[in-house]
Amino acid sequence: MPEAGDWEAVIGMEVHAHLKTASKMFCGCSTDYLGKPPNSNVCPVCLGLPGVLPVINRRAVELCLKSALALNCEIQPSTKFDRKNYYYPDLPKGYQISQYDLPMSRNGWLEVDGRRVGITRVHLEEDTGRLVHAGDRLESADRSYVDLNRSGMPLMEVVSEPDLRSAAEARDFAMALRGILRAVGAGEADMEKGQLRSEANVSIRPRGSEELGVKTELKNINSFKALFNAVEYEIKRQARELEAGRQVVQETRGWSEPERRTFSQRSKEVAQDYRYFPEPDLPPLAFAPAWIAELRSSLPELPAARRERLVSESGLSEYQARLLAGDLEVADYFEELVRRGLKAQPAANWLIGEMLPRDEPLSVPVAETAELLKRLEASAINREQARAVLDQLYETGKPVAELAAGLEQISDAGALADVIDAVLAANPQAVADFKAGKEAAVGPLVGKVMQATGGSANPKLARDLLLERLRR
Amino acid sequence: MTQLYALTIGELAPLLRDREISAVELLDAHLRRIEAVDPKVKAYLRLTPDLARAQAADADRLFQAGAAGPLTGIPVAIKDVLCVEGVETTAGSKILAGFKPPYEATAIARLRAAGCVFLGMTNCDEFAMGSSTENSGFFPTHNPWSLDKVPGGSSGGSAAAVAAGEAVFGLGTDTGGSIRQPAALCGVVGMKPTYGRVSRYGLIAFASSLDQIGPLARSVTDAALVLSAVAGPDPNDSTCFDRPLDLSQLEAGVRGMRLGVPKEYFEVAGMQAGVRESVEQALAALEGTGAELVDVTLPHTDYGLAAYYIIAPAEASSNLARFDGVKYGLREARAESLMDTYLQTRRQGFGAEVRRRIMLGSYALSSGYYDAYYLKAQKVRTLIKRDFDAAFEHCDAVVSATSPTVAFEIGAKTGDPFAMYLNDVLTLGGNLAGLPGVSLPCAPAGGLPVGLQVLAPQFREDVALLVARAYEQAGGARAEVARVA
């Protein structure tokens, strides 16, 4: 038994992503189902009524293939759909049309944190409906309702090799995958909206061992943060079990966000038999090599290439470039700022530091951000003021010209002289400290000047003036 | 004069066109006939007189406007597995009692557009699983020629309706012989098209890779007419193909054609001497009109039944999973849990034969048995296809009996599923190979109808129908309306 902490985590991912098509996988219903009244976005096909037949959505196949190509997969020359049979009320036909032994593509890789993570397969299937339980918990609900609005949504499944070694890598894998899906236009891949569902298969083994430990499958993960937390928790839990001389049980475990722990959902001791067989209602598909070539050549610049370009062309750091290139819209936003004449470094810092942490970071028009940053660059306003204007931009949507009017940075030494005098007079201790050699004492004094001017002083000027007076 | 209900589409068309009779009169004649004989035959599960009257009135307006087509005003009987919008459609099963589809099968929509008059939904074996219509969840249908006998199945209601003058033609479905065998036992013409010729959209599936919709009629030309109306590609069915169907040369005769006689089809278990004799007479008649009879061999015939009874139940076990009591049809509401709801709903909603096939099929697909059963059966299927490919190198069509026996007593085989399955031994090869096939009456045996089966290569419905038409004209038996007594 290894000592505490001497474990290596082995993680493989199964990620399901909704594809951005106009209609569902096998019928003409809209994919715009979120927020609609229950069972209003349905038709006989996605309701699974007797006698109806599926028809393959060509666009879904195309988006799946493009994603697979972007994940460096081999496209199979022919593929077929299969039926996965099981009973559940959210599965109206009693089977899910999926792909079993001939997926669309296999053997790819995705670069995560500078390392290639193997992609086992990428395939296409249909989503199920949803159960809504009266009350908070399934166990105590006195009834459950079926909503089939989501039934038949085109769903792409990406399965990775067990190549990931930490919670951070698992999260970064999902984020990198999202970047790819957004870049090729396959989907929004918003985890909070259920458009990207990540399941992690986690096991641990003594570091240096080649054998795989017993794995658990983590589900019910609704954000990248939750993915990180769930995997992190699970690795520690498994270590605790093994260190206490117990076994890890092969099972499905759910992530409880409020309790911040994983809990046992379903034991996998008795493997469910899905009785897969080829879907007789759909002919097998064969892909013309010319079509695949066309799809390959239509791929846009992918996040990895863009990241490299941002480093070489814009002089960003690896860290900055990865953050920006991981999201198509963010990267486009950044490059638009640069195109509008802003310096790359400060623009990247502003975007990463001030905007990305917000709820809808890109809801401010790029022209307004550019306007704001120009004023900042020209020292017409200071950073504090710019931040305040940004808050207003998010809140009111008014133009920068209006919001920043009257916000003039005091850059006139004469105008600051009285304030400086007053601050020095009111803080004799700081002045004494400085004179005794503690140069850092100037910092709080600058703060006082800023405070006294309502934030409008040019901090650099204030500092220079203070130093000049103190050294006098 | 011959009763209106005893005429064919071909005979009725000029009467309707020249307005010697109206569509409403034709409908009334059928409704009266149904009232008179259906209490004995029990071909219909439910009638749709209001819909029929409206359609007949519409048809008469079309005749007045000179805008009628060849099927305008023709009353049709619809097998209860074909969804008719707004009309209770149950697949002969209690589990679907009360189910009114909010959509329509493509074949039905095409008949509606052609101006047909929908008389009602006909009885069948539950989910088309059976060869006698005794597996109906509601009641058995009786053979109009001999009321204590079965009409065959599973399209027994449509076959009996056509034989008894309760409809001019019917629609059925054929998964292993379910159109041809009841056509044979009821003395009418039944046609199973090439797999993919007619859209399956709206057909409540039994076995998706085998099911086909086709006509039951009282003449070969009627069957051809109906086939033309329902055939053709459908964006809602990806297995439905777009290939030309030219049925304009059915009168060309068989002179110079080679008709293959597969010896295996004359040696099957339970082949009745009377059936064999009647079929041999029919072959001689075809030879007499200029066809050449050639011996062909279908060496894997013996394995067909086993392969069929793995593939069809396997697909059925999946197709019928949707009947779970959650969304429509029967729900056993007293159940204590979700699993109980499933178990009790399905136990009460499905009959014994359906449950048997679901179990057979689930077993054949289960992990560890898949290769030995389902995959093996698919390989046998390929061999059977190759048998036919090889046979068709030597002949234009294959001729045989449709069923090894004439109609049997109601109840005679219900206790012995295997004996019942043997009814399909001559027809299911056509389904496994996806071929078009016709059954038409030849000389009766012991006063009961016998069917002659003509199988043609894929896409060659024209060949199957041409041979059938040649026999019909050569003085073979003609489909007639049974007196029903």
How many helices of chain A does DSSP assign? 15
Total count of strands of chain B: 11
Mean pLDDT of chain A: 91
Please trace the helix and strand order of chain B, writing H or E for each element: HHEHEHEHEHEEHEHEHHHHEHHEEH
The overall average pLDDT of chain B, rounded, is 96
Name the beta content range of chain B. Answer: 5-15%
Q: How many angstroms does the end-to-end distance of chain B come to?
A: 20 Å
Shape of chain A: elongated
| SSE class of chain A | alpha+beta
What count of domains describes the coordinates of chain B? 1
CATH class of chain B: Alpha Beta
Question: What's the Cα radius of gyration of chain B?
Answer: 21 Å
Helix content of chain A: 25-40%
* Largest sheet data of chain A: 9 strands, mixed
- What's the end-to-end separation of chain A, in Å? 69 Å
* Percent of residues in beta strands of chain A: 15-25%
What tags apply to this protein structure?
heterodimer; A: 3 domains; B: 485 residues; alpha/beta; Amidase signature (AS) enzymes; 15 helices; 13% strand; globular
Brief overview, please?
Chain A is α+β, with helices and mostly antiparallel strands and 472 residues long. Chain A has 15 helices and 16 strands. In chain A, strand 12, helix 3 and strand 13 form a beta-alpha-beta unit.
Could you outline the blueprint of secondary structure elements for this entry?
The complex is a heterodimer of chains A (about 475) and B (about 475).
Chain A: E1 7-18, H1 58-70, E2 74-75, E3 78-79, E4 82-85, E5 95-98, E6 105-112, E7 115-126, E8 130-133, E9 144-147, E10 154-160, H2 167-183, E11 196-206, E12 216-219, H3 224-243, E13 251-256, E14 261-267, E15 277-278, E16 285-286, H4 289-297, H5 303-314, H6 318-325, H7 328-339, H8 344-355, H9 366-377, H10 383-396, H11 400-403, H12 413-426, H13 428-435, H14 442-452, H15 459-470
Chain B: H1 9-17, H2 23-41, E1 44-47, H3 49-65, E2 75-79, H4 106-113, E3 117-122, H5 156-163, E4 169-174, H6 180-186, E5 189-192, E6 212-217, H7 220-230, E7 258-262, H8 273-288, E8 292-296, H9 301-319, H10 338-349, H11 352-365, H12 371-391, E9 397-401, H13 417-421, H14 428-432, E10 437-445, E11 448-455, H15 461-473
Parallel strand pairs in B: 2-3, 2-4, 7-8, 7-9
Antiparallel strand pairs in B: 1-3, 4-6, 5-6, 5-10, 9-11, 10-11
Helix pairs in contact in B: 2-3, 5-6, 9-11, 9-12
